[in-house]
Amino acid sequence: MTLRIFSAALVAAAVGLLAGPALARCSKNLVEGPLPGIKFASLDGVQFASGDSPNRAVITFVGHASYQIDTPQGVRAITDYNGMNGFGRRPDIVTMNNAHDTHYTDQPEDGITYILRGWPDKPGETEAKVDVTLKDMRVWNVPTNARDWNGGVRINGNSIFIFSIGDLCIAHLGHLHQRLTQAHLDEIGRIDVVMTPIDGAYTMGVPLMAEVIKQMEPKVVLPMHYWGRSQLDRFMGLIAPLNPEFIRPEKQTIEISKEDLPDKLTVIAVAGDGGG
Q1: Tens of pLDDT, residues 125-135
Q2: 23 inside domain
Q3: Residue 132's pLDDT is what?
Q4: Would you say residue 25 lies in a domain?
Q5: Considering only 23-37, 164-178, 241-255, which range has the smallest mean pLDDT?
Q6: Which domain CATH number covers 217?
Q7: Given CA atoms 85, 89, 95, 98 in this order, what sign does their dihedral have?
Q8: Which of 66, 154, 209, 256 is the most buried (most CB within 10 A)?
Q9: Mind giving me the DSSP string for 175-238?
Q10: Residue 259: helix, strand or coil by DSSP?
Q11: How far apart are alpha carbons 20 and 183 in whole angstroms?
């Protein structure tokens, strides 16, 4: 159920082709045109209008660094799944980062089709690399480094997970602790929506996280992993040179489609004033 339409301005539509299996990435934007805006949906089930584009997702904030992503063909994924964040039926795909136990679980519920860990956890493994497809959702990862508890570096200890639903590309930055290199950006490709931790302490400093947003050039940012409006305001201040729009919806669920992407960077605080 749609609550309201966000924008009446011109918006950009991008049509992309996914690269082949040798390099999983989202393609660069190719064309633009005037189309409507982002829809805010209710929590009363996941509903897609009949005949709408397949390049869309219903996204729900379910706590801390966890977002639930539902596709038109009924695939459900939960990011940084810890066994507690979520609602309704069991997810089909879960992604995890093990920076803290609030980002992963060793006891996921039975029946999940794909359990994707973002760190090397097998003997001799130097990085986690996944690339799976279930119906209309494809998920893969780009490993990045992470701090350890002793001030050192865990090489490839974090993953940026990327979810593509048709031509809509969503990235979840996980427990990011480093600037992105050009190699990271090339592997990630074009991203429409970025789920970004903005706590500035357990993850990366907020000024550096603002630099990552500039590097990735998404159309929509969904902040997560923060405690209180002051952290949200600080993040908004640091990305102010990008002239973003800011939306704080009443509900924790939105529907975003490729054809409905806003023309300029838009920060949507689906997690409200405190997404911890």
Answers
A1: 889 999 999 99
A2: no
A3: 97
A4: no
A5: 23-37
A6: 3.60.15.10
A7: positive
A8: 256
A9: S--SPPPHHHHHHHB--SEEEEE--SSSSS-HHHHHHHHHHH--SEEEEES--SHHHHHHHHHH
A10: helix
A11: 18
- What is the separation, in whole angstroms, between the first and last Cα of the chain? 27
Residue type, 177: H
**What is d(CA 104, CA 115) in angstroms, rounded to the nearest whole number?**
10
Contacts of 16 (CB under 8 A, 6+ apart): 26, 27, 28, 29, 30, 167, 169, 190
Tally of domains in the chain: 1
Print the domain residue range for 244: 2-14+37-268
Taking each helix axis from N to C end, the angle separating 229-238 and 206-216, rounded to the nearest 10 degrees, works out to 50
Assigned domain for 273 exists = no
Residue 69 inside a domain? The answer is yes
Q: How confident is the model at residue 139 (pLDDT cuts 50, 70, 90)?
A: very high
For residue 147, the model assigns a pLDDT of 62
